[in-house]
Structure prediction request, 194 residues.
Amino acid sequence: MTAMIDRPHMLTEEFEAVARIAARETEGTRLEFIDGVLRSKAVPDGDHGMIIQWLTRICMQHRPELWLHPGQGLKVEQYRAGRAIPDAVLAPAGAFAGQGEWVAPDPALMVVEVTSWDSDTDRRDRIEKPRAYAETGIPVYLLIDRDKCEISLHTEPEGGRYLNVRTVPYGMDVGLPEPVGITLRTEPLKDWVR
Prediction:
């Protein structure tokens, strides 16, 4: 599928209005606007929540000046026309205070996605979002892939993509480079897959 940035399904402002209504009126779905296309994202399950909780504890222990902001909407893509809701954003503790639902990604040191059990996760989490986050210049994209029992670490954003992608199976240690500077011991992730 080619990007629809030149001919988006709707304007960004229209998307934001629809997303507000959907959040208020429906359960089980969150909306995103990537590459000019409206997408839905399943609401996380309990194991998904445990993974975010596990990562939050690690970040708090090693980088107490930062916070793992769950579900924070980000303005992404070139010219910030896109809207994405990562599972978590690592940024300074007060980085998004006083801002609305969709914030500029400039303070983000890392975005985190944990795969869901929906049909769209492959395209969304493995193709569209890495490109959008790289275009935005977010230094680290961490994909915790429950389908494959792997972690993919994307670093060095340049030219709309991450130049360095390292994938390791659950159980191996993963060093998150600066500006994050944390090592993840991933053995516990084996408990939160189907």
